[in-house]
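Task: sequence design from structure.
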C-alpha cells in the first residue's frame, strides 16, 4: 500500500480553535497521504480562515482541497468527502482530533490486496484547557478506555468487542477501503451521536476489523464533544443501531467471524444474554425471540474455539477484573501497555 492510495478526509465544523493542529498532524505524517480534503460544514467561527492559512503555508507533497458549504451535518459531510475521493483507502479524521506521526505508515500495510477492509488503532486522550482544570477528567477517560479494552479480552474477536462497546471510540479512528465503503453505504445521517458505532457494526457484516494496537490517534476532550451530550439521544440511537443489526443478523455474512448466531451458534446466545447496556437491558431482550432459538442451528456443535470463548465470556461475567487472553486480545493488551507507558 503506497502513500498515493489514501485520502485523509476531515469534516470541519466550528473547530477553529483546534483545526490548525489537526491539519498539522496530517502534514507531519511519515507516510503522507495523496490528498487531504476538508469540507467546512457551515462553520460560524474562524475555521475557514484558519484552514485557508494552513493550506497556504504548507509546501509538502499532499494535495490539499477545501470545500465550504452550508451546514448539512457530520454524517452527510463524511459521506460527501468519501464519495469525492478517488484513492483506494479513506482515512477519517474529525477537526478536533490528532493523528500520531506514524499513523498511516502503521495502518496502511495492514490492508489486504482485495476485498472490504476496515481498521482502527489504539488511542490516547488530550484534555483541552477549558476542562483540564479538573484533573479527574483525563483520568476518567483513560479509565473508561482501559475498561473497554479489558472487557474486550473476554471476547473471541474484535468484532464482538465493537458490537458490545465501541472500542474504536470515534470515526476519527476509521481507515477503510473503497470496497468497504461501497458495501456499507456510508454513515447514516439519521444518527447524530452513535453514527460511528453504527458504521462499525454495519461493517462487521463485510469485514472483520483489523486492530493496530499502537495509540495512533489522539482524541481531544473538550466542553463541546458530541459524546459528552450523548445521554440526551443515545438510548434511542442505540436501539436504532441494534434494530439495523438484527436485519442482517440471520443472513450469510461475507465476514466468517461476524458476531452472528450463524457463525457462533452457541456463543452468540450466551453473549446476547450477558451483554447489558448502562440501563441494564441485555442485548437478548432487544432481539426478536427467534434469533436466539435453538432451532436456528439444531445440528451445530460448538468448536473448541467457541467452547473456549464461552468459558472466557462466563468467567469475565463472574469476575469482571479478570480476563482470559485471546489471540486478538493480546494485541489490545499491548495497546494498553503502549498507551499507559507500562511494561
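Answer:
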Amino acid at each position: 500500500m503506497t502513500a498515493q492510495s489514501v485520502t485523509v478526509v476531515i469534516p470541519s465544523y466550528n473547530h477553529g480553535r483546534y483545526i490548525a493542529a489537526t491539519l498539522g498532524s496530517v502534514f507531519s505524517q511519515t507516510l503522507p497521504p495523496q490528498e487531504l480534503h476538508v469540507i467546512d460544514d457551515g462553520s460560524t467561527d474562524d475555521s475557514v480562515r484558519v484552514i485557508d492559512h494552513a493550506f497556504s503555508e504548507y509546501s509538502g507533497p499532499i494535495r490539499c482541497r477545501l470545500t465550504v458549504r452550508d451546514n448539512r451535518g457530520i454524517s452527510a459531510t463524511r459521506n460527501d468527502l468519501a464519495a469525492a475521493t478517488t484513492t483506494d483507502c479513506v482515512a477519517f479524521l474529525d477537526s478536533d482530533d490528532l493523528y500520531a506521526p506514524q499513523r498511516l505508515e502503521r495502518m496502511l500495510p495492514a490492508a489486504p490486496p482485495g476485498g472490504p477492509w476496515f481498521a482502527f488503532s489504539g488511542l490516547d486522550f488530550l484534555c483541552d484547557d477549558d476542562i483540564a482544570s479538573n484533573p479527574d477528567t483525563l483520568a476518567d477517560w483513560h479509565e473508561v478506555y482501559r475498561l473497554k479494552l479489558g472487557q474486550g479480552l473476554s471476547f473471541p474477536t474484535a468484532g464482538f468487542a465493537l458490537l458490545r462497546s465501541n472500542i474504536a471510540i470515534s470515526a476519527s479512528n476509521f481507515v477503510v477501503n473503497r470496497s468497504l465503503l461501497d458495501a456499507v453505504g456510508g454513515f447514516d445521517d439519521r444518527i447524530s451521536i452513535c453514527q460511528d458505532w453504527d458504521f462499525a457494526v454495519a461493517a462487521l457484516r463485510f469485514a472483520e476489523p483489523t486492530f493496530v494496537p499502537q495509540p495512533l490517534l489522539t482524541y481531544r476532550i473538550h466542553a463541546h464533544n458530541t459524546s459528552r451530550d450523548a445521554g440526551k439521544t443515545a438510548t434511542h440511537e442505540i436501539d436504532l443501531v441494534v434494530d439495523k443489526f438484527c436485519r442482517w443478523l440471520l443472513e450469510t455474512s461475507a465476514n466468517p467471524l461476524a458476531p452472528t448466531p450463524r457463525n457462533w451458534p452457541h456463543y452468540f446466545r450466551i453473549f446476547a444474554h450477558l451483554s447489558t447496556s448502562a440501563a441494564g437491558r441485555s442485548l437478548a431482550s432487544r432481539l426478536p425471540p427467534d434469533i436466539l432459538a435453538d432451532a436456528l442451528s439444531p445440528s451445530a456443535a460448538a468448536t473448541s474455539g467457541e467452547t473456549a470463548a464461552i468459558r472466557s465470556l462466563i468467567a469475565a461475567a463472574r469476575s469482571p477484573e479478570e480476563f482470559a487472553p485471546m489471540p486478538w486480545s493480546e494485541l489490545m493488551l499491548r495497546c494498553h501497555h503502549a498507551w499507559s507507558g507500562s511494561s
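Confidence is low (pLDDT under 50) at residues 321-343.
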